[in-house]
Design a protein that fits this description.
single chain, alpha/beta, six-stranded mixed sheet, binds zinc ion, Metallo-beta-lactamase, Chain A, globular
Length: 233
Amino acid sequence: MISIQFVGTGGAFDVAQGNSAAWITFKGKNILLDCGHSVYPRLREKGLADKMDYILLTHLHDDHAGSLSTLIFHQTHVAQRRSSLLYPTADFGDHLFAYLAFSQQQPDAHSDFIPLWQFPGRGISYLETTGMHVPGMMTFAYIFEDDDEILIYSGDMGNPDLILNYLDANPSPKKIRIFHELIFYPGIRAHCYYRALEPLAEKYSVYGYHINPETEPKDNKIPLVANFPELLL
Ligand SMILES: [Zn+2]
């Protein structure tokens, strides 16, 4: 089974839950998936700020990338090691480099920029979700697949159709777990309304994140990551 533990499970403004991010151990490597503004302090508390092998991002909003530069500087100056940043497409790699250049001038002095397909052992792919979260914004979902399991992490993507279509087009006998962002009120295009996740949850094992569980409506049927201690770091 692919190991996933959330560093935080909330959205941009859910200070108590922390920004959604995951610590994934896959093919013997530790991958930090997203690094929002609350993530670096939490990793320090847990003694993990220099323990990841790779960093991978879904997109560059602050709640997903806001402490990335600090984390990289920590690795350079405190842990004295280089960071390894995986990127899904060349465009996003350039985008990430330019983003970091505002605080680091020469991002490649601190980090190696590595295309996702070069991850050792392979097994990580992406779904480009650009424009689904916010018009014009580059965003990605990620798929981790080993011999036993497929694990999908949505990133912020607004609706579940892309993942549903992907799984319908690529049927697999493997165990499938989907971690999907959601929101509890309708009319917000940027996030996935919880009722819209029901068709996906009828077919697959779906867990919701990027939400404050205290706001959960009584009719919600999507299990929330925040309620599963084994899924929390
Ligand atoms: Zn977000």
